[in-house]
Design goal:
The structure is a single chain. This protein is mainly α. The protein has one domain: Four Helix Bundle (Hemerythrin (Met), subunit A) (Up-down Bundle), CATH 1.20.120.1760. Helix content is 74%, strand content 4%. The protein has a two-stranded antiparallel ribbon with strand order 1-2. Strand 1 and strand 2 form a beta hairpin. Helix 1 packs antiparallel against helix 2. The relative contact order is 0.14. This protein catalyzes the committed step to the synthesis of the acidic phospholipids. Its EC number is 2.7.8.5. It catalyses: a CDP-1,2-diacyl-sn-glycerol + sn-glycerol 3-phosphate = a 1,2-diacyl-sn-glycero-3-phospho-(1'-sn-glycero-3'-phosphate) + CMP + H(+).
């Protein structure tokens, strides 16, 4: 297994650590972060999430720079993103920091695109993430990070950036999902 794929696996392995920090009954109190009060566990969870999300850029950088792009990596990388983002969004619903219907739309798109990838893989085609899919992933990461940090960065100017970012993430999630299906509709037209 090459280095980029190992980095991708590390992203998957950070998910249970994130879940334990966010959902286990730890009470480490609250802290002030850029003027906003938030539970210490949410701050630690945000740091873990951001570190795990950063591995998405790192594994892609090494794969392209050293010509280590593999079919396994093309499969694992978006899967790791979907697992991390889905876990974080479900936690945010549990903590009542994100609207459940928005999370359902986002996760439904992730399942649908994964299903499309499986259909295409059955035909011998591996589809790598495109530019719009990468924008979608980064808008989701920004929204989740802002929500985990309770909008602390923008709290001082009273802008609900975290909620706006979640709406932007949902928009790009829907758009990129439509784009994947539009570009690969032949998979359904040619299926038997």
């Amino acid at each position: 297994m090459n280095l980029p794929n190992k980095i991708t696996i590390s992203r998957i392995l950070l998910i249970p650590v994130f879940l334990i920090v966010m959902l286990a009954p730890f009470d480490w109190g609250n802290m002030s972060f850029i003027g906003a009060e938030l539970p210490v566990t949410h701050f630690i969870g945000a740091i873990i999430f951001i570190i795990a999300s950063t591995t998405d850029w790192i594994d892609g950088y090494y794969a392209r720079k050293y010509d280590l792009v593999t079919n396994l990596g093309k499969f694992l990388d978006p899967l790791a993103d979907k697992l991390l983002v889905s876990a974080a969004l479900i936690v945010l619903v549990d903590l009542e920091l994100a609207a459940s219907w928005i999370v359902i739309v986002i996760i439904s798109r992730e399942f649908a695109v994964t299903g499309l990838r499986l259909v295409l893989a059955g035909e011998g085609e591996v589809v790598a993430a495109n530019r719009l899919g990468k924008i979608k992933t980064w808008t989701q990461i920004i929204a989740i990070s802002a929500l985990l940090l309770h909008n602390a960065i923008f709290e001082l100017v009273s802008i609900p950036f975290d909620q706006l970012a979640l709406w932007v993430a949902m928009f790009f999630t829907i758009w990129s999902g439509w784009d994947y299906f539009a570009k690969n509709k032949r998979a359904f037209l040619n299926s038997k």
